[in-house]
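Every protein is a chain of amino acids, and every chain bends into a shape of its own. The protein below has been through that process, and both of its lines are reproduced in full.
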Amino acid sequence: MSMLRNLATSLINAEKEHIVTTVQKAKELRPFVEKAITLARKAQSLNGDSAKVQEVHLRRQASRFFHAGNSTFKEAASRFRGKKGEAKEPIERTAGVAAVQRLFDELGVRYKDRNGGYTRIIKVGRRSGDNAELAVIELVDNPRELAAKG
């Protein structure tokens, strides 16, 4: 479970929207990530009085798919940190929180009209050290792919 969470976080946060891993890991990761993207997609179609409450609920459900890792955030956000009068360093959120934000802000909007099939697995050969079969798992309709289509 931890490995899937780490892979999902890496895939969602990746700049080029793809990661290289073994074929078996990619096949396990695909339904895991697609369920999280479906939650973000559902949040885009909410309307009515309770839409904000339901969106928070969907965000919390989606956060199950990523590591939280915010145990020290409260301490880091404290106004009492550092010396008096010195500028405070900006607080950086963990990768899991950034993944949930990106999932709902960007990917949910991108896949709003798509019914599943948010990822693609491409086999790329074998790793030289242990001869494991490698694959690239990527998000479909990424900006790089859309620019290539013209």
In short: The chain has a mean pLDDT of 86. The CA atoms of residues 13 and 98 lie 7 Å apart. The two ends are 39 Å apart (CA to CA).
